[in-house]
Amino acid sequence: MIVRGNYALRRYRKEAVMSNNLFVAPYTPEQRETCAGLFQKVYNMPPFAFAWLDGEKAKSYFWDLESIPNSLSFILMDGSMAVGACMGQKEEHFQNPGYKINEFFIEPEHQHLGLGAYFINELENKLHELGVKTMYLFTQRNMYSFDFYLKNNFIVNDGTVHMAKVIRQEPTVVYTRTFVNSED
Ligand SMILES: CC(C)(COP(=O)(O)OP(=O)(O)OC[C@H]1O[C@@H](n2cnc3c(N)ncnc32)[C@H](O)[C@@H]1OP(=O)(O)O)[C@@H](O)C(=O)NCCC(=O)NCCS
User: Fold this and answer.
1) What DSSP character marks residue 87?
2) pLDDT tens digits for 87-140?
3) Secondary structure of 130-169 as H, E, C letters
4) Quick one: pLDDT at residue 169?
5) Which residue is closest in CA terms to ligand 1's atom 29?
């Protein structure tokens, strides 16, 4: 794990990683297990520490993500090792084709080395070739990834509000009725 604040170490790691063979490859279902494993590693750690996220849940989530119509996902490779993934979908139904990012993450020991920025930039080039005009995602203002996206020139759409409604835990019985067979 990178020790934040240890700038000499971070700089050393950054140069070491950036000199390696980084490239972006298309995601295929054969990489589901690897990517789900990375995802689980990222979100089992602080600040998330999702104790409920086990290997099976992660794999079934990735199956869902790759089954979305027009799903278009990518893996960030460092040589033969997957170090990040972007799970998304191309959306044709707007005025201009867009790309919705559903999950974007970098393997914890490779974070803060510039790989996230490199990945976004490579995605942008690939999506541009496919005629995509915008990439977008949901995140939370109080999450550190918010700063990361701002730093990578994502802009906040103030006109959009994400809304949710909690489904009642217990079904509410509005009224009951006894059906009486008129022949009885
Ligand atoms: C967010 C994430 C994709 C960024 O990738 P990365 O490779 O670490 O990012 P980069 O090294 O290119 O850029 C890092 C910069 O982004 C911001 N940033 C990223 N993580 C940060 C953190 N934990 N705390 C503060 N700022 C952070 C900072 O500006 C940082 O600059 P610095 O390294 O000089 O401090 C990666 O940290 C990650 O996978 N996080 C966990 C999963 C996640 O939150 N995904 C997004 C969900 S919407």
Assistant:
1) E
2) 999 999 888 999 999 999 999 999 999 999 999 999 999 999 999 999 999 998
3) CCCCEEECCCCCCCHHHHHHHHCCCCCCCCCCCCCCCCCC
4) 75
5) 148
Short-list 123, 130, 101, 108, CA closest to 26 = 123
> 149: Cβ below 6 Å to ligand 1?
no
Protein residue with least CA distance to atom 14, ligand 1:
112
**Residue 1: per-residue pLDDT:** 42
pTM greater than 0.90 (yes/no): no
DSSP state letter for 89: E
Q: What does the pLDDT average to over 151-179? A: 81
State which CATH number among 3.20.20.190, 3.40.630.30, 3.30.70.60, 3.90.1150.10 fits the domain covering 7-151: 3.40.630.30
Alpha carbon nearest to ligand 1 atom 10, residue: 114
C-beta separation of 62 from 86 below 8 A: no
Query: What radius of gyration do the chain's Cα atoms show?
Result: 21
- What is the average pLDDT value for the chain, to the nearest integer? 88
Best mutation site among 104, 113, 148, 150 for ligand 1, i.e. most ligand atoms within 8 A of its Cβ?
148
Q: Where are the domains of the chain?
A: 7-151
Report the candidate in 116, 114, 119 with the shortest Cα–Cα distance to residue 13: 114
